[in-house]
Specification:
It comes from Ophiophagus hannah (King cobra). Pfam families: DHC_N1 (PF08385). InterPro entries: DHC, Dynein_heavy_tail. This is Dynein heavy chain tail domain-containing protein. GO terms for molecular function: dynein intermediate chain binding; dynein light intermediate chain binding. The protein is of the alpha+beta class and 417 residues long. It has three domains: 121 residues, no CATH class; 56 residues; 153 residues, no CATH class. It has 15 helices and four strands. Strands 2-1-3-4 form a four-stranded antiparallel sheet, with helices on both faces. The longest helix is centred in the last third of the chain and has 38 residues. The radius of gyration is 29 Å and the shape is flat.
Length: 417
């Protein structure tokens, strides 16, 4: 054992002698980002073969990026030799660990410091590393990974791209190029909106409450269901649990009258996410145990539950369909949010066609009331822009030869105030 430890120590010192100015630059940045002493960072990356990954980052034609994670680890992942030397347990069985990763082997739960090469074909040396390598960090401690990526894009990259007037190549010399640039930035902003919506969905998800009236872990199979069903007191306790779940499910947020098609899409994506999460919970052992007992007991509450289960399934399918159909409107609506009035008007026929298609095949939007509402929201998309009043609602200038939506076009013909 002592011989092995001595050998490992010698190997680590040999690797340390290999470190040069490039490593000094990288490790100093990591040290500042994760608030560790530089020698602690150095000791951490000298473990195992992590140095080889960093070496490949420096070579011509090598890796495009290198990432350092600093986060709590537990069980087999921790290991004694991988410790950074801080040895401060943040929770029972957990300890903070710094390590090099490719990002696809361990989930990020702490801090990520990442370095990216601007030109992978050029070797990195101590003289050019500050020009050829860019870096940034993400801290998932507050809000998780989605929130961290969202703020990285919205607070740093998108503002930089909006103000950057160089490096766009031929796109800087033509109106077409300017439009492509605008579309690209709009796509990034749309992605940020998706991240925000996903994060909001996670925060708003409905988590069925733990049964407080009976220990459901005692119900392991049909025999236990039968015993429980023969006790009126037990059945009443389990029914009380189901009543709590029914109340939770019925309190799911109702549809809001949002301002435009994008907000409408966000609403249905969130709704789909919440119902999918709810359906997953309905397959858990606790719910199956409650259903098992109440089925044997022939509880009258089961009728309400089955009706609610059907409504949940219908609502999930409805949300799924609406997300699919509303995605077709995204491209049509982009000019209403991002372009000048002339381009807005040119985009209207495509928007009308998309809404006609939705009206003809959607189960939810196939009524006059619902499709009219969607038209109104589409008109609000352009009126939400900072335009002169006479540009409001260009939909009123469009005529469509289709009797099914003639009434809708007439409705939209009136200005939006």
């Amino acid at each position: 054992m002592l011989v092995l430890q001595q050998k490992l120590k010698e190997e680590k010192e040999a690797k340390r002698a290999h470190l040069d100015g490039r490593y000094d630059y990288i490790l100093s940045i990591v040290s500042a980002c994760v608030n560790l002493e530089k020698n602690e960072v150095e000791d951490a990356v000298l473990e195992g073969n992590q140095i080889e990954r960093i070496d490949q980052f420096f070579t011509a034609g090598g890796f495009r990026h290198v990432m350092f994670y600093y986060q709590d680890m537990e069980g087999p992942e921790l290991g004694h030799e991988s410790s950074t030397g801080t040895n401060s347990a943040s929770a029972k069985g957990k300890k903070s660990k710094l390590f090099v990763t490719e990002g696809d082997d361990v989930a990020l739960t702490g801090i990520c410091v990442f370095f990216i090469r601007t030109n992978p074909s050029k070797a990195i040396n101590a003289e050019n590393i500050h020009r050829e390598v860019v870096f940034n960090m993400m801290d998932t401690a507050n809000g998780g990974l989605l929130n961290s990526v969202q703020h990285l894009l919205s607070d740093i990259f998108i503002p930089a791209l909006n103000t950057m007037n160089y490096g766009w190549g031929e796109m800087s010399s033509s109106q077409k190029g300017a439009n492509i640039k605008q579309d690209f930035i709009a796509s990034l902003e749309g992605f940020v909106s998706v991240l925000s919506g996903a994060q909001q969905s996670l925060l708003e998800k409905v988590l069925l409450k733990k049964c407080e009236t009976y220990d459901l872990k005692m119900l392991k199979g049909p025999a236990d269901f039968l015993v429980a069903a023969n006790s009126m007191e037990t059945v009443e306790r389990i029914e009380a649990c189901m009543k709590v779940w029914i109340k939770q499910i019925e309190q799911l947020r109702k549809e809001a009258d949002d301002l435009g098609p994008r907000a409408e899409l966000d609403h249905w994506k969130k709704r789909l996410s919440k119902f999918n999460y709810l359906l997953d919970q309905l397959k858990t052992s606790d719910v199956k145990a409650v259903l098992g007992v109440l089925t044997v007991a022939k509880s009258k509450l089961l009728k309400n539950w089955r009706e609610l289960d059907t409504r949940i399934t219908d609502a999930t399918n409805e949300a799924k369909d609406n997300v699919k159909y509303l995605y077709t409107l995204e491209k049509c609506c982009d000019p209403l949010y991002n372009c000048d009035p002339v381009i807005m008007v040119d985009a209207i026929p495509g928007l009308i066609h998309a809404i006609k298609m939705i009206h003809s095949i959607s189960r939810y939007y196939n009524t006059s009331e619902k499709i009219t509402s969607l038209f109104v929201k589409a008109s609000r998309a352009d009126s939400s822009s900072e335009l002169e009043p006479h540009y409001y609602c260009p939909l009123k200038t469009v005529t469509v030869e289709n009797n099914n939506i003639y009434l809708l076009i007439t409705f939209i013909h009136h200005p939006i105030h």
